[in-house]
């Protein structure tokens, strides 16, 4: 178990990450930072203990008998409490399809995959509720109202989102479904809808009709999904798609405008967040380094930003959370974060092993 990369850092809090109160972090630390072999009995035991993690238990306790959370017909809303978000989170927390409740959740979510391959906010039953609202509003304004049969297919297709599809495909792979046909279909769809600049937009969503520039949120989730796909399952088209997508992020230094003197695009992207459903520089760094872009100097400003956030005791804090909007609280804002620290160290390990050292610009 190699620890050579740690010598380039000071005060790597490995023992803290290995504490038993956060079973998933302990497992991932052993697997990703300490390089335990897949058949190591200690690593297997650590993985099996993940079901004992309190947030995992609370999420599973909230699940409905049919495999859903909250509304059976609307897996997207409300955000952070409905079915999509629980499956994403269970994937982040290290669960897998050996758990029957996870299997039921996946069976339920797969009914919301559009024939084209993307995942949607709702199907016909959920669309009916939306239609009733739209119809009532239009009638009050004396506007023409199309039939549900005409309106619903277009609306369902419109709500086929690239950001959602990337996150769901990523979760499915983390949960052990990499070879499932639904994952392949979702990735093929993401290849087909990639934007001309290498990023992604939600292709049919009304709010993006006039947009030409790729969306960072729409881009990071497909790339994260592609980065999780076993190499043997990646097609040549997927490889080209990944290369174009990474270049989109790198040309922006992961958080800067390439057309306005490289000013920061969004200050919120600089904040460290867990659970990670959206975009920030740590997720950007995680994805591009997983895909092998550790020597590219265009990641250095983002790396320097991350290093500047390190606490004097060697950990990194969580700066944004969804606490209060979720079924569970994993960590509290402002405190040292095992999840953030784990992810930063994964990134740093890749960079240091590739470069042999860690020299970054001052920002």
Condensed summary:
It is built from 15 helices and no strands. The protein is mostly helical and 363 residues long.
Fold and architecture overview:
By secondary structure, the chain is mostly helical. The protein has a domain at 53-122 and 159-251: Glycosyltransferase (Alpha/alpha barrel), CATH 1.50.10. The protein is built from 15 helices and no strands. The chain has helices at residues 14-17, 23-33, 41-48, 54-61, 83-92, 100-109, 124-140, 148-158, 162-174, 181-192, 216-228, 236-251, 281-290, 300-308, 338-355. Helix 5 packs across helix 9 (162-174) and helix 9 runs parallel beside helix 11. The longest helix is centred in the last third of the chain and has 18 residues, at 338-355. It is globular, with a radius of gyration of 21 Å.
Distance between the termini: 34 Å
The biggest sheet, with number of strands, parallel, antiparallel or mixed sense and barrel status, is:
none
Average pLDDT reading: 96
CATH topology assignment of the domain at 53-122 and 159-251: Glycosyltransferase
Helix content: 40-55%
The radius of gyration over CA amounts to 21 Å
The overall strand count is 0
The CATH class of the domain at 53-122 and 159-251, by name, is Mainly Alpha
Structural class: mainly alpha
- pLDDT < 50 stretches: none
Q: Give the overall silhouette.
A: globular
């Amino acid at each position: 178990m190699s620890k050579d990369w740690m010598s380039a850092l000071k005060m790597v809090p490995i023992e803290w990450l290995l504490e038993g109160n956060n079973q998933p972090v302990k497992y991932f630390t052993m697997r990703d930072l300490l390089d335990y072999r897949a058949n190591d009995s200690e690593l297997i035991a650590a993985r099996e203990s993940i079901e004992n993690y309190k947030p995992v238990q609370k999420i599973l306790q909230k699940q409905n008998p049919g495999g859903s959370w909250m509304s059976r017909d609307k897996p997207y809303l409300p955000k952070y409490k409905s079915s999509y978000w629980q499956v994403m989170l269970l994937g982040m927390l290290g669960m897998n399809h050996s758990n029957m409740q996870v299997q039921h959740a996946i069976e339920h979510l797969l009914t919301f995959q559009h024939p084209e391959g993307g995942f949607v906010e709702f199907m016909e039953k959920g669309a009916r509720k939306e239609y009733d609202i739209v119809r009532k509003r239009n009638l009050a304004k004396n506007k023409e109202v199309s039939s549900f049969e005409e309106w619903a297919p277009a609306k369902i297709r419109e709500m086929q989102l690239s950001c959602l599809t990337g996150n769901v495909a990523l979760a499915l792979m983390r949960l052990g479904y990499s070879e499932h046909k639904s994952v392949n279909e979702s990735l093929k769809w993401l290849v087909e809808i990639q934007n001309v600049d290498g990023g992604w937009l939600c292709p049919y969503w009304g709010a993006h009709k006039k947009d030409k520039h790729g969306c960072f949120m729409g881009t990071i989730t497909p790339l994260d999904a592609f980065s999780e796909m076993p190499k043997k399952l990646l097609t040549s088209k997927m490889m080209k798609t990944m290369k174009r997508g990474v270049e989109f992020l790198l040309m922006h230094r992961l958080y800067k405008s390439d057309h306005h003197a490289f000013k920061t695009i969004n200050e919120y992207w600089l904040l460290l967040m867990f659970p990670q459903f959206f975009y920030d520089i740590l997720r950007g760094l995680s994805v591009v380094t997983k895909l092998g872009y550790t020597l590219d100097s265009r990641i250095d400003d983002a790396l320097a930003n991350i290093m500047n956030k390190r606490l004097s005791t060697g950990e990194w804090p969580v700066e944004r959370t969804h606490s209060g909007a979720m079924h569970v609280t994993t960590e509290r804002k402002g405190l040292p974060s095992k999840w953030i620290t784990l992810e930063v160290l994964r990134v740093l390990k890749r960079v240091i092993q590739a470069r042999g050292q860690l020299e970054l610009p001052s920002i």
